[in-house]
Amino acid sequence: MIAENLEALTNYLWHESTKKINTLLAETDFNISDYYYLTAIANMNHPNFGDVAQALNLTKPAISALIKRLMHHELIEKVQCQEDKRVFYLSITEKGKAMIEGDHNLYARLAAQLSSNISPAKLEELDYLLDTVVSLLSEETTA
Question: What is the span of the domain harbouring residue 136?
């Protein structure tokens, strides 16, 4: 039962997310991996190519290809370092921010629906359970 509910929740969130993505991008070569990389870069503070390669455990050639794809979709841009002109940092464009904000809005909407339909005690219990799941996943990721 838990597995089926997690699957249903995941499918719902991805379906809603892709609707937003499709309104922002006309091209069809944007995929879930590209979205994951975009959100990872957005969660970093103006990383350089090396920072991204290390965080995503990818080679520099793979990062270069990824950056070109995200730049092609106008989701990120390279910003040259003023102190060292050889270094470029990555910044999320307004279009990229809008894509990510769409998911944040989706999560907020779902949280509001839950809050208005579940008792405060059950909501607190749900929050505790979700915190536990996130902690377990964090431990698994860092191991």
Answer: 2-142
